[in-house]
Amino acid sequence: MHPCRLISAVVEHSSGAGLAGQYQLSNLRAIEAESIHIIREVAAEFERPVLLFSGGKDSVVMLRLAQKAFWPGRIPFPVMHIDTGHNFPEVLEFRDRTVSELGANLLVASVQASIDAGRSVDEVGPDPSRNRLQTRTLLDAIAEYKFDAVFGGARRDEEKARAKERVYSFRDEFGQWDPKNQRPELWSLYNGRHRAGEHIRVFPLSDWTELDVWQYVGEEGLDLPSIYYAHRREVFRRDGMLISTGPYVNAREDEEVVETTVRYRTVGDMTCTGAVESSADSVDDIILEVAASRLTERGATRADDRVSEAAMEDRKREGYF
Amino acid sequence: MELLRFATAGSVDDGKSTLIGRLLYDSKAIFEDQLEAVERVSTQRGDDYTDLALLTDGLRAEREQGITIDVAYRYFATPARKFIIADTPGHIQYTRNMVTGNSTADLTIVLVDARVGIVEQTRRHAFLASLLRVPHLLVCVNKMDLVDFDQAVFDSIREEFTAFASRLDVADMTFIPISALQGDNVVQRSANMPWYEGASLLHHLEQVYIASDRNLIDPRFPVQWVVRPKASSHPDYRGYAGRVDGGVFRVGDEVMVLPSGLTTTVSGIDTFSGPVEEAFDPMSVTLRLADDIDISRGDMICRPHNRPTVGQDLDAMVCWMTDRPVKVGDFLALKHTTRWVRAVVRDIHYRLDVNSLHRDEAATSLGLNDVGRVSLRVTQPLFYDSYRRNRQTGSFILANEDNNVTAGAGMLLGPD
Asked: Per-domain residue ranges for chain A?
């Protein structure tokens, strides 16, 4: 199997196939066209869309697609980061640089501010995480700014509850997702109709896989936070994951801290995102590594999904990303 | 690498989950942590074997009840193609899910149990694939290992299916004898069936020719968004962003804009990566036109001598998708290409029995999962083609005006 083969041409010419063969898009250009179509539909039909930007690779791809959708016009909606206060510093630096280069309007909704205002309470216990607290901050920001469409970078290949979610995912006045009562979604005719107070989560990368994202990063020459590439870091092993030492999480007495060469497959909180041992320091090396990996990116690196068989479904029902 | 979308329908008994599990496993698209999770749950439940259906049944309710209730999308790739599977349940109460899964499919796999032969569900799956005009139908006669890989069994099923399918509108039909459980003819050609000379299932999926399935004849460009940067870098720029929903547009082409009927020429085709000379289905581009004419979202750009039908009276096959039935006189919201309009149901000609294809002309309403022929009148003219000719400009969705849920899916009938 060589699913990692890179295709750089926009149009593939297949020999002897006649006219139709000439007019054939590669997989990447077909899903790109589909995503741009979705982003334009949202901008046209909603009053106040917003694009969630974490600085992770999926949101970087989504931002590029938004840029393409309206070029040479500017992106006609703001970009919002749900800031847990437990971010990798490299990712925050990247976020600010990227957004300012683009001239986009960045909003930051802070979990710490929600805690200070008494809207959320930090978890207690052995491994506290602010993962779940993001939902309250996100829903408050949606209400405050009256957003009616919220772009997220989630992909269906990431997780089994997400595999069932629509491109346009309806949320009721409590921000809840009802997986058993989803709107049928046919062709590319999206139904964004909603009442005041309700909103739609929109996932333009639904049909992208992790490999597609990396191939696109390579073809488009997109910048990513440095932690996606191999680097030296002090880590310790917890629940089979390599957790970085840092200001928000400390190794316990029985957890040995070692310095090793790692990279991150996903970008989340420092408290719940694990690194993988890797020497891949270029996009091409990462594509080879992803193609050969026998673990999903979330299974390998996210403690937040390991809580139970339905951890993601339960969080999504409450209004999570 | 090309993209192929295919739909499957069926219940656990058909071996559908086993088949998908095998395709994913053999193409290395199932990961160790997913497999471990499935094995853990199977063991906890006391299953005799690892239930690969748990890989696709992502919702808590599905795992608890051991059923698939919704469309699940799965992804895998080989060196030749990337595949998106729309995996749907097969029972009649999930007709709407099958319709959804088939709406974007290039190919549909219909599974037949070799021991049982063609049953009601087989006919329904084939009918829905033809109703949604999926260009390729692939009939997999499964569990061949349980009939001693007997060619006579396969031949008789193929004959019976072909006779039935002659009543349907299926462009391309292929039959493959397989054993999903043992892997015969799934990825590799089977040594147990030397009498079968065709391709393995995976090979067929990699090779089936899909490039000419789109409409590359009739240029159609529904306008999604008007690009007007009003920036110093592009002070007078005005472009029309959208997706090509049929045909090919080239710089210099004479085009007509509907509903105004004004004609002009394409002066440029822009993308973020630079201008292109031509754009074809399904590219998302921005068209610039030589003349300054009033164009907004919902308008259609086509060719003066190749226009879609313009009309307010629609005749369509409709699949109903919500509990509250639809009857003559009901008002609904209707979305076609980039346009929302109001529609009133003028007539329900008949309800189709999706198992027997019998037409019930006495029907006065369509309920959940019903399919029927319906006439609608809409508030503004639509620019449409028959669904037969163009799946994008020939389709629409209906939504309830009060609770906004997507209530129906329509396929337009036309002169051709």
From this structure: 19-211+311-318, 225-305
Render pLDDT for B36-64 as a digit per residue (tens, 0 to 9): 777 777 777 777 666 666 666 666 666 66
pLDDT of the residue at A62: 98
Q: Which residues of B touch A6 (CB under 8 A)?
A: none
Is the pTM of the predicted complex or chain greater than 0.80? yes
Asked if A165 reaches chain B (Cβ–Cβ under 8 Å), the answer is: no
Do residues A24 and A11 touch, judged by C-beta distance below 8 A? yes
Note the CATH number of domain A19-211+311-318: 3.40.50.620
Chosen CATH of B2-213 out of 3.40.930.10, 3.40.50.1860, 2.40.160.90, 3.40.50.300: 3.40.50.300
Are B90 and B121 contacting, i.e. CB atoms less than 8 angstroms apart?
yes
Nearest to A296 among B34, B234, B283 (CB): B34
Q: How large is the ipTM? A: 0.94
**Residues 6 or more apart in contact with residue A76 via CB below 8 angstroms:** A43, A70
Are the C-beta atoms of A287 and A211 separated by less than 8 Å? yes
> Is A27 in contact with B82 (Cβ distance < 8 A)?
yes
Q: What is the rounded CA–CA span in Å between residue A56 and residue A227?
A: 10
| Chain B nearest-CA residue for A32 | B284
For domain B309-412, give the fold. Elongation Factor Tu (Ef-tu); domain 3 (2.40.30)
* pLDDT tens profile A30-80: 999 999 999 999 999 999 999 999 999 999 999 999 999 999 999 999 999
